[in-house]
Design a protein that fits this description.
This protein is mainly alpha-helical. The protein is 90% helix and 0% strand.
Length: 48
């Protein structure tokens, strides 16, 4: 019985890992876009 519960818990966590990874991938993509936009903005500023 204990092994059955552990197996079910692991299966549940596996699905959660996929969801978290997708969220992290999306966040990283958004951050890369923000960094690129910040770089473009900084290039518009006059240099000293």
């Amino acid at each position: 019985m204990k092994h059955n519960l552990n197996a079910k818990a692991i299966v549940g966590l596996s699905g959660e890992v996929v969801s978290v990874q997708a969220n992290v991938d999306s966040l990283v993509a958004e951050m890369e876009t923000a960094f690129a936009q910040a770089d473009l903005f900084l290039k518009t500023l006059p240099s000293e």
